[in-house]
Each structure stands twice: as C-alpha cells, then as structure tokens.
Amino acid sequence: MNFGALIIGDEILSGRRGDRHLARLIELLGARGLKLSWARYCGDDFERLTDTLRQTFATGDVVFSFGGIGATPDDRTREAAGAALGLELELHPEAEAEIRARFGDETTPERLQMGVYPRGSEIVPNPYNRIPGFSIRKHYFTPGFPKMAWPMVEWVLDTEYAHLHHAEDYIEQAITVWDAYEGQLIGLMRQVTADFPDATLFSLPTLAEEGQRRSLELGMKGAAECVAAAMASIKAELDARGLEWQDKA
Fold first, then answer.
1. Distances from the Cα of 108 to the Cαs of 72, 78, 101, 216, in angstroms?
2. Cα(208)–Cα(229) distance, integer angstroms
3. Are 124 and 134 in contact (CB under 8 A)?
C-alpha cells in the first residue's frame, strides 16, 4: 500500500503560510511502521486542482489531502474532487448532523456547505470542532489547520489501516560520520551496495558553518536483518579507516 500527500492552497505556494503537514504526516506514518511514497503541492486554481486530483485518484494510493475544504469561495477542493471523479455533490446527512450539532440555531446555508461532498463520500470525524472532512476512493480530505487535520489523519490510520501497522519488515538506520567528505567514502558505499542488494544506502552530507565540524549522515533502509548487517559492515570499515562516527537517534 502506497501513501501520498496532497497539500493544497495558494498561501503555501506564495509563502504566506509555511507547510507543516508533510513532516507531521511522515512522523505519523513512521510511528505505525508505514512510509510516505510521494507528496504534491497544488494551489487553489480549480482546473489545475481538478487535474491533479484526477491524477492522484488514478494511482489507487491512499492519499491524505490538506486544505481547501472551508466555507470561503477559494475553498474548491470538494468541487474539484467531484469534478475529477465525474460525481455530483450533495449534502452528506452525517456531516449535516455534525454541523447542526456544532452550531445549533446559528447553522447557516454557508456552514452546511462544508458538509457537501461528492456523492458516495464518507465523513472523517473532526474532534476539534465537529466539522468533518470526507473520504472517497481512498482519498482523505482534511482542513488546512494542523490542530484539526492531524488528529483526523491519526483516526484514519488507526481505524482504516490498523492492519497495515508494522506489517512490512522495513527500518531505517543511520550514523553520523564526522570530518568526512562523501568523496572519501564512495568506494565504501559502492561495496556495501553490492554486498547488500536488498537494502538501500543513503548519504546526506551537510555544509558546515564556520566553527562547526563537517559531518555526513550515512545509512541504510530495508529489511531489519539486512540493514543491521549492512550497518555493521559500514561501522567496521569506518573504524578500520580511523573515522569517527556515532549512531543517530
């Protein structure tokens, strides 16, 4: 099962708001032994958003979408999802009940519009203010507000995909190598890649600021047993070369 992220809003692309969803989604997935396969950003332009959703629906992946389901005219995600699937929109009865329970006598047609989804959708409960998101075709549409969106994502993962938690034999391990250049370790990287073809090596150098030590993050990802063996090989070779390293938390 592949998981994707779609982060929506002109404010993200213009820099008026910084995206916090991507890092948090990776964290929420990782805590459950899952990983993110891809991420996309899209503004509020209706045609572009519709085309983007048409493409993401076609993947068959589980997709978490953030933003664009509020009550203002620039919130077009519900309409775009309907257009991408060729489905009419309708007021969802459970969403209507939640919205009316939230606002009581102050329920307005504009507020009820937040419960209008493509036909066949299901609600995603919102514990923060009871105004739900919605899901359809393995896409889960949540608000742009982190306080609302993140608990909703957790609910989806723990309700719909609990059977996938820690089901895959997959881990990532890394070490920090001090005072080393990538170029010094290319031979080591090639040898480890050849010796452990079922795991994937990664190397992330840093640019040291004045007064800081140069460092390089070197690691492996894949099945636990294979990763452990590969990391042991890397550490032994670094020790033989007299290079300092330490495990990353």
1. 13, 18, 12, 56
2. 30
3. yes
CB 174 within 8 A of CB 98: no
* Strands of the sheet with 200-205, listed across from one edge: 200-205, 215-222, 171-178, 245-247
CA pair distance 234, 127, nearest whole angstrom? 46
Residues 67, 143 contacting (CB under 8 angstroms): yes
- How many Cβ atoms are within 10 Å of 1's Cβ, its own excluded? 13
pLDDT digits (tens, 9 = 90+) for 74-129: 999 999 999 999 999 999 999 999 999 999 999 999 999 999 999 999 999 999 99
